[in-house]
Structure to design on (514 residues):
């Protein structure tokens, strides 16, 4: 392998503006300064870790001010990016959809209203809003009731035709099917709380005397609960939905409260069940059954709009929300090609990346769950450089996780990493984790105030997650000086081991792990 030389949240806006202020010029010849030579030596040392002996590592560091390459090792090799894929998805969404983009969920009348009776069908139409809560469906039902409707003689029709009917990524692992971080994608869906994990329900267990009590958030009878758990001295419980059904089987022992996020089968019908329940609570009876369809000529009774994309980027990127990535991908396809499909949406993302100088990119989904996603560290660095000139950059940059910041919706998946180092409240970067895959790419300001972009991609290791290697590199970049050599001996003391050691993103391991 060839090796070549190569803020606090309150001040985030100022930092972001500084990041966006200087244009990138063509890379210059390698700087012969001792600072760069020292950086090369130190990064080579970090990457000589024995855990990477049989693994693959692609790393690149560039000056964001000039585009100069400061360090590179296999930056052109195709790697599995995991959630670093979201860098491309989120940036493309900001460009294609715009920061003001909102999802809408509507209730419509397909029929004639006579007094308080709707003679026809009531339609629930969605465009993919991942932020819809049970409370939002309740508010939509209340608005229908406020129109004076008390009886619907027809059916409740679910119109999720804004997206296609392909619910799962074609490369996703079958054993992730019931995991909330691999939930089904639909234009009608619901989330259990303000993490906005669309298409999932929180199933909670607790000891209640000599029995195990089971509750759900939100309260719903959409899931069939089979409770075989018993009260025990410790909590060792399995909560799992059976394949292809909405039957959740609970086994094991329960001593204290425990929550599990479970993906539902058919989120469209799940959303409809929440809406129908809310309609009943507001005195609106739908006499017919729930069916699917896309009726034309229906008139709007009520509408709910989501938060704008500028706000959605925060839970999306801070918590590495897979469903947001896939929904935004299909939304881009719908806008650009009139097709709410993965194929159309991924083409929109790839076209955006290529228009911004990215040469190597193979996307199979928007989130990075697919192991057939392929990208190079150099491609990520090019994206990071290019988007700095975008009018939406400041919002996007601030949505990235921030190292060492304990606030969950600020630090995100980096909140427990690099604390007490020069990288804390400095590094804005996207994490990525799958079994034998880890990545970290983003921005850091050097000790001399120079903005840098970096991408670190580690694949095919057999050890525990080597995220501490990523942290050491990021900390070293935060200490980088062109004029003052840095003592290599400080690397170990300044870069504590990562507290996120799992094979998946820490935010995917509910309850909250990061």
């Amino acid at each position: 392998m060839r090796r070549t030389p190569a803020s606090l949240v309150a001040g985030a806006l100022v930092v972001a503006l500084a990041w966006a202020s200087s244009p990138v010029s063509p890379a210059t010849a390698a700087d012969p300064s001792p600072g760069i030579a020292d950086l090369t030596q130190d990064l080579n040392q970090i990457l000589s870790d024995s855990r990477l002996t049989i693994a693959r590592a692609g790393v690149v560091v560039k000056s964001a001010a000039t585009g100069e390459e400061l360090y590179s090792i296999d930056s052109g090799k195709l790697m599995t990016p995991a959630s670093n894929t979201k860098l491309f998805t989120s940036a493309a969404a900001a460009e294609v959809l715009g920061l003001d983009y909102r999802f809408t969920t509507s209730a419509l009348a397909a029929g004639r209203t006579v007094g308080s009776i709707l003679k026809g069908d009531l339609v629930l139409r969605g465009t993919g809003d991942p932020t819809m809560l049970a409370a939002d469906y309740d508010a939509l039902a209340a608005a229908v009731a406020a129109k004076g409707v008390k009886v619907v003689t027809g059916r409740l029709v679910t119109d999720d035709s804004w997206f296609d009917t392909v619910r799962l990524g074609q490369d996703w692992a079958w054993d992730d099917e019931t995991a909330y971080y691999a939930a089904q994608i639909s234009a009608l869906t619901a989330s259990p709380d303000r993490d906005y994990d669309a298409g999932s329900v929180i199933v909670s267990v607790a000891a209640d005397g000599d029995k195990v009590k089971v509750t759900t958030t939100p309260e719903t009878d959409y899931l069939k609960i089979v409770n075989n758990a018993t009260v025990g001295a410790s909590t060792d419980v399995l909560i799992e939905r059976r394949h292809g059904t909405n039957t959740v089987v609970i086994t094991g022992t329960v001593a204290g409260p425990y929550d599990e996020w479970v993906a539902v089968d058919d989120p469209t019908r799940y959303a409809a069940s929440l809406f129908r329940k809310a309609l009943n609570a507001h005195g609106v009876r739908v006499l017919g059954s729930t069916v699917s369809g896309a009726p034309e000529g229906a008139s709007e009774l009520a509408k709910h709009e989501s938060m704008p994309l500028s706000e959605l980027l925060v839970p999306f990127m801070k918590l590495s929300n897979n469903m947001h990535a896939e929904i935004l991908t299909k939304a881009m396809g719908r806008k650009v090609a009139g097709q709410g499909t993965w194929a159309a949406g991924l083409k929109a993302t790839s076209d955006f990346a290529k228009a911004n100088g990215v040469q190597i990119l193979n996307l199979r989904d928007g989130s990075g769950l697919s192991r057939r996603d392929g990208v190079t560290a150099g491609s990520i660095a090019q994206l990071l450089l290019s988007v700095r000139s975008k009018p939406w950059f400041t919002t996007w940059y601030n949505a990235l996780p921030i190292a060492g910041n304990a606030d969950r919706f600020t630090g995100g998946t980096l909140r427990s990493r690099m604390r007490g180092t020069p990288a804390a409240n400095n590094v804005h970067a996207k994490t990525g984790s799958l079994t034998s895959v880890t990545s970290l790419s983003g921005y850091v300001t050097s000790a001399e105030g120079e903005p840098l972009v970096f991408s670190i991609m580690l694949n095919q290791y057999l050890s525990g997650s080597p995220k501490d290697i990523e942290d050491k590199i990021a900390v070293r970049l935060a200490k980088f000086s062109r004029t003052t050599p840095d003592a290599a001996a400080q690397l170990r003391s300044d870069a504590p081991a990562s507290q996120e050691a799992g094979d998946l993103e820490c935010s995917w391991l509910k309850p909250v792990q990061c």
Notes: Residues 200-263 form one domain. The chain has three domains: 3-100+310-508, 104-165+267-306, 200-263. Residues 7 and 28 are 29 Å apart (CA to CA).
